[in-house]
Amino acid sequence: MTIEFPVVLAPLAGYSDLAYRLLCRRHGAAYCSTEMMLDKLLLVDGRLRRRLVQLDDRDHPLAGQLIGGAPETMAAAARIVCQMGFDVVDVNFACPARKALARQRGGYLMSRPEQAVAILRAVLAAGAGPAPKPVTVKLRQKFRNADDDSAFWRIAEAALEAGAAAVCIHARSVEMKYTGRADWAFIAEVKRRFPQATIIGSGDVLHPADALEMLERTGVDAVAAARGVLGNPWFFRQVADLAAGREPYQPRLDEQRELLAWHFDHARRTHGPRAAKIMRKFGIKYARMHPAPTKVRAAFVNVSCSDHWQAVLEEFYGGG
Ligand SMILES: Cc1cc2nc3c(=O)[nH]c(=O)nc-3n(C[C@H](O)[C@H](O)[C@H](O)COP(=O)(O)O)c2cc1C
């Protein structure tokens, strides 16, 4: 699989849903990932699975990210993800949330490298067959700050040896969660050690210029942008502008309004009455693109229905 532009949308729980992925693609994201999907929820064909899995012809190539703690359930979920039409299966060994750690999944696996390898092998075996789908893995640098990097190398080496298509490295410990600085020197070392493999870098790509800087400083094949894209789906276009030596694109207020209206409309169609609550958190993120971010943020915080969203657009984004 070839990705045209090496800056892609990272998995973002609560944010990288179908509507947001489509918006990012509209502005240049050539590859996107779903948020993490709990393996066990995919095994039952019900309401929760329908809520998690949102596929659309315009949303490819797409990675479906899985989180879980047991090889059997992860393999079964991988099989379902492949059958449903995802293009790539991504395995999450990076999530630092307390619940994930308590349930022995996500970032917890950075402290149990042999269990992580067993999960990966099972997922890779599940993806094999007449039309195998690529399997990728998302890792943190280590579990605790005081740990050495040996678990990372054990899992990454085993993954690539067993046929993983790419390794994505978020260069923080699990213990750090999202604080402190990501260790880009470590990302560069990963690429140096695995020059033939596809390595995706993650961590502190907060502004469009950071994406180009990470590519240049670390030599990775691609960069996964996360917090920098929250509220700014124009991010990818802005990186392309910088790469071409142009000023980064700044959306006018009427363009922001059009996008925000489309997003709410789409959310209402897919989420029904839950849309207002879901869109509130997006609105809070979108506010940062507005010239009066504090006021707009405060207005979005109180949105409780579609009319209310519309009123905020009218008040702050110039009618329409
Ligand atoms: C709100 C939020 C949700 C996230 N959800 C996921 C997730 O579901 N799966 C995952 O692998 N990483 C997830 N991440 C981590 C990001 O993909 C990324 O690796 C991390 O934020 C570092 O990149 P950044 O410093 O550029 O934001 C999430 C991050 C944030 C801020």
Describe the structure.
- The protein has an eight-stranded parallel sheet with strand order 1-8-7-6-5-4-3-2.
- The longest helix is centred in the C-terminal third of the chain and has 19 residues, at 253-271.
- The chain folds into two domains: 7-243, TIM Barrel (Alpha-Beta Barrel); 253-316.
- The protein has helices at residues 18-26, 39-42, 47-52, 71-84, 98-102, 113-127, 150-162, 184-193, 208-218, 235-243, 253-271, 275-286, 293-301, 306-316; strands at residues 7-9, 32-38, 62-67, 88-93, 135-142, 166-173, 198-202, 222-225.
- It contains 14 helices and eight strands.
- The chain is 46% helix and 15% strand.
- The protein is an alpha/beta fold.
- Helix 11 runs antiparallel to helix 14 (306-316).
- Flavin mononucleotide binds at residues 10-15, 35-36, 65, 92, 94-95, 138, 170, 178, 182, 202-206, 225-228.
Number of strands: 8
Radius of gyration using CA atoms only: 20 Å
Query: Helicity range of the residues?
Result: 40-55%
Strand-pairing-aware structural class: alpha/beta
Low-confidence stretches: none
Give the DSSP E fraction (strand runs of 2 or more residues): 5-15%
Global geometry: globular
